[in-house]
């Protein structure tokens, strides 16, 4: 780019026609434009509206928008002009601004999400650098309220439906939507399974699907779908009619993640926070759902002691209402299937962390049946951890429960290029390093297995964890802990971080997990595991969980914690035997950190 300018035009026909005639580039040159309102349509909503587009004929395209009933409240146009722009640059800048606007949260983005791109083109990195200048200018004008790193670290950005999908995500979305419309035409209902390891974007697919279906339902016969999108063919009259009065909901078992997604839906046209619910809310719904998407479906519950007497009663009441009797074999998944005609499950069986979660054999059967029915969609591209796609498998190999597997090679020491993975033998040094990384990149937090009781709950005067002379407290909130004040000085549990990204995770492996060098295997120390629901037997189903079963859940917990960090993972191990074992497998040491290497 040799230099850009942003021209401003009132959003009315007289002004736009005059502007169009004033420069040939206004009629025949690739540009990016924003149409926004100086004040919210409803002041009580707290949001302004904005539409972002790219075109080769700015004047004609803006005049078309002036005829759109949904944009009559908008008041001004900003056109980004540059003599070096081409179509590819404009598509990229358009997508870039849409993603950042959605993540900033000041505006409601009126765009559909099927046209977001992330394609390579000549001199892309040069243009990408210059996009920062466009952003800074727009921020100076009040269009943005936060910096790019602040936006990219926010849940609004990470959970936004305005994503450029990876190839396997796009294939899954295309096949799912195509299959859904086929099922609707045939009048049949089906269950689909989307399976992926941590960081493959299961939640991204779930939120993207919600927005795409909402956009198809809200489209108009004279709309122009994005010709470059693989989803353009879904915007037809038949599909639009098929989705009229079509009720779609998103079930999210984890409280914190659920609330974060609700905040995203509040700012997304076509979506509503009430569409995001617990499994209890889905089971209690008076009206059936046409489609329920379940994120983290492995965290749905079977019949087990719930967190309160009220929820235990609800479990019985919902089951009785739906099936005519209190059948203790029914699970929350059975509720969802009973209350919806179509279901899409986002699943990773290796992220089940409590005995109350759906039983492992049930999850295996679900996945196997979906594969047999050609209703199984794998996600394999690693979007989170910069260590590469084999990092997840390596972490799971070093946390493999049970005796040595003669059919699997033992885990070997690894280093991961461009990934900051370090082993610490002093918790204070690791905490100091996490603070430093947070100052540099944001979103660096300490997390730990549930190897200490939560004695500080409701009291700010006590601490839960004491290691190497340092006193630490568990997370002071269950909801949106990562972004909460003071979280940098606290320790997050599995229930606050599962489903979220961090830039750096400082993982404390407590004495609930031990290494037996004689048996060459991991062991569970039940006495040092303090998640009551994580080790509770199930008398209703006649289940007593053995140490081997508990070990599997605890290993899953640590595998989840060790796969949160995008840029790096720091590790501190309490058990001496396990510390010695992992020191030989994990790269880095506290000595290296002290030396600045």
Q: Bin the helical content.
A: 25-40%
Low-pLDDT runs: 589-597
Provide the β-strand percentage band: 15-25%
User: Major beta sheet, specifics?
Assistant: 7 strands, mixed
Trace the largest sheet across and list its strands: 12-20-17-13-16-15-14
Number of strands: 20
Secondary structure class reads alpha/beta
What is the number of domains?
A: 3
Distance between the termini: 38 Å
Proper CATH architecture of the largest domain: 3-Layer(aba) Sandwich
- What would the CATH topology of the largest domain be? Rossmann fold
Mean pLDDT: 92
Number of helices: 21
Radius of gyration: 26 Å
Envelope shape: globular
What is the CATH class designation of the largest domain? Alpha Beta
CATH superfamily of the largest domain: P-loop containing nucleotide triphosphate hydrolases
Summed up:
The protein is built from 21 helices and 20 strands. With 597 residues, it is of the alpha/beta class.
Describe, in plain words, how this protein is organized in 3D.
Residues 188-350 form the AAA+ ATPase domain. This is DUF2075 domain-containing protein. It holds the Pfam family SLFN-g3_helicase. InterPro entries: AAA+_ATPase, P-loop_NTPase, SLFN_3-like_DNA/RNA_helicase. There is one protein chain. By secondary structure, the chain is an alpha/beta fold. It has 3 domains: 4-150, 2-Layer Sandwich (Dna Ligase, domain 1), CATH 3.30.1490; 167-379, 3-Layer(aba) Sandwich (Rossmann fold), CATH 3.40.50.300; 404-595. Helix content is 37%, strand content 18%. The chain has 21 helices and 20 strands. The strands form 4 sheets. It has a 7-stranded mixed beta sheet with strand order 12-20-17-13-16-15-14. Strands 8-7-9-10-6-11 form a 6-stranded parallel beta sheet, with helices on both faces. The chain has a 5-stranded mixed beta sheet with strand order 1-4-2-3-5, sandwiched between helices. Helix 1 (13-21) runs antiparallel to helix 2 and helix 12 packs across helix 13. The radius of gyration is 26 Å and the shape is globular. Residues 589-597 have low confidence and may be disordered.
């Amino acid at each position: 780019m040799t230099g850009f300018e942003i021209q401003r035009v009132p959003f009315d026909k007289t002004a736009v026609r005059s502007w169009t005639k004033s420069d040939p580039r206004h009629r025949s040159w690739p540009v990016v434009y924003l149409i926004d309102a100086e004040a919210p349509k409803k002041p009580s909503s707290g949001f302004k509206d904005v539409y972002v587009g790219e075109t080769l004929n700015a004047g004609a395209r803006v005049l078309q928008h002036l005829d759109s009933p949904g944009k009559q409240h908008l008041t001004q146009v900003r056109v980004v002009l540059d003599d070096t722009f081409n179509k590819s640059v404009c598509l990229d800048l358009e997508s870039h601004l849409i993603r950042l606007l959605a993540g900033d949260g000041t505006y409601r983005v009126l765009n559909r999400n099927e046209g977001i791109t992330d394609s390579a083109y000549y001199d892309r990195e040069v243009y990408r650098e210059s996009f920062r200048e466009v952003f800074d200018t727009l921020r100076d004008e009040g269009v943005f309220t936060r910096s790019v790193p602040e936006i990219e670290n926010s849940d609004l950005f990470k959970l936004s439906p305005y994503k450029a999908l990876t190839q396997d995500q796009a294939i899954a979305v295309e096949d799912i939507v195509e299959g859904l419309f086929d099922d609707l035409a045939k009048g049949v209902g089906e269950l689909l399974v989307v399976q992926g390891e941590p960081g493959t974007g299961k939640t991204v697919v779930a939120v993207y699907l919600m927005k795409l279906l909402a956009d198809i339902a809200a489209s108009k016969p004279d709309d122009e779908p994005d010709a470059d999108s693989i989803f353009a063919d879904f915007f037809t009259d038949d599909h639009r009619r098929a989705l009229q009065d079509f009720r779609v909901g998103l079930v999210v078992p984890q409280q914190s993640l659920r609330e974060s997604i609700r905040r995203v839906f509040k700012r997304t046209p076509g979506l509503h926070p009430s569409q995001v619910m617990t499994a209890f809310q889905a089971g209690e719904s008076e009206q059936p759902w046409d489609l329920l998407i379940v994120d983290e479906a492995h965290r749905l519950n079977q019949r087990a002691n719930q967190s309160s007497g009220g929820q235990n009663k609800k479990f019985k009441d919902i089951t009785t209402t739906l099936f005519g009797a209190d059948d203790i074999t029914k699970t929350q998944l059975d509720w969802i299937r009973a209350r919806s005609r179509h279901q899409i499950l986002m699943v990773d069986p290796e992220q089940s962390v409590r005995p109350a979660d759906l039983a492992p054999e049930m999850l295996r059967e679900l996945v196997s049946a979906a594969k047999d029915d050609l209703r199984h969609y794998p996600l394999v591209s690693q979007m989170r951890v910069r260590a590469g796609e084999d990092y997840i498998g390596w972490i799971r190999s070093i946390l493999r429960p049970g005796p040595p597997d003669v059919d699997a090679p033992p885990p070997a020491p690894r280093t991961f290029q461009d990934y900051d993975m370090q082993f610490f033998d002093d918790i204070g040094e690791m905490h100091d390093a996490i603070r430093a990384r947070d100052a540099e990149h944001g979103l660096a937090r300490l997390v730990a297995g549930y190897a200490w009781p939560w004695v500080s709950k409701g009291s700010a005067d006590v601490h839960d964890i004491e290691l190497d002379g340092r006193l630490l407290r568990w997370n002071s909130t269950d909801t949106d802990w990562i972004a909460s004040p003071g979280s940098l000085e606290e320790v997050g549990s599995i229930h606050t971080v599962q489903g979220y990204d961090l830039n750096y995770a400082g993982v404390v492996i407590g004495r609930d997990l031990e290494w037996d060098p004689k048996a060459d295997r991991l062991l569970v120390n039940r006495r040092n595991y303090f998640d009551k629901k994580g080790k509770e037997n199930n008398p209703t189903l006649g289940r007593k969980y053995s140490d081997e079963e508990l070990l599997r859940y605890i290993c899953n917990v640590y595998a989840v914690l060790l796969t949160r960090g995008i840029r790096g993972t720091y590790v501190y191990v309490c058990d001496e035997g396990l510390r010695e074992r992992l020191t030989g497998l994990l790269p880095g040491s506290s000595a290296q950190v002290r030396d600045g290497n």
